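Researcher: Next sequence.
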Amino acid sequence: VKPENVTFKEAPSAQRETLIENGQVDFVVATYSITDKRKDKVDFAGPYYIAGQDLLVKADNTTIAGPDSLAGKKVCSVKGSTPAQNIEKNYPQAQLQTYDTYSLCIEAMRSGAIDAVTTDNVILAGYAAQSPGTFKLVNKPFTTEKYGIGVKKGQTDLRTKVNDAIASMITDGSWKAAQERNFAGTGFAVPAPPTIDRY
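Model: Next structure:
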């Protein structure tokens, strides 16, 4: 498919399954973690990347060194996201605040209303890179997030085509090149490519 033939639509975290199920989108490409709960509603191609949930704090923060130091801290994530659910379930001592977007969480932290922002390390590294010296990645990932591409349940042909495209990008080196280009300056080392789950 040529880029000019693609129509891009915003897919907020809490609406992704609905958009796929209703046929409003053909597939969702996002930092979309493959979970058993989501697999009840949609099918996934991939994973195309494996990330880990982490924390972003102000650069001068010395009190938050990982998820175990969140007691009483105001932690922001996005409504309906896997990271928000993880904090709620596994770190109830944190004061979870949920906003519609991560950029709103970042602004709340910039103003001092929030102590930390949590989502996957690759997203947080991007925010840190956009504001050098303002924020820092705690760099203690505490989950494994397998990013997949969501398709309508039972669309095996489309899922196979997407898996084939991912496999081709890994084989021809474009997967690694995209990582190097997009993570430059964030301190990330390019990981080994994931194994595609052709269930």
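Model: The two ends are 24 Å apart (CA to CA). The beta strands are 27-33, 42-51, 53-58, 74-78, 95-99, 116-120, 135-137, 145-152.
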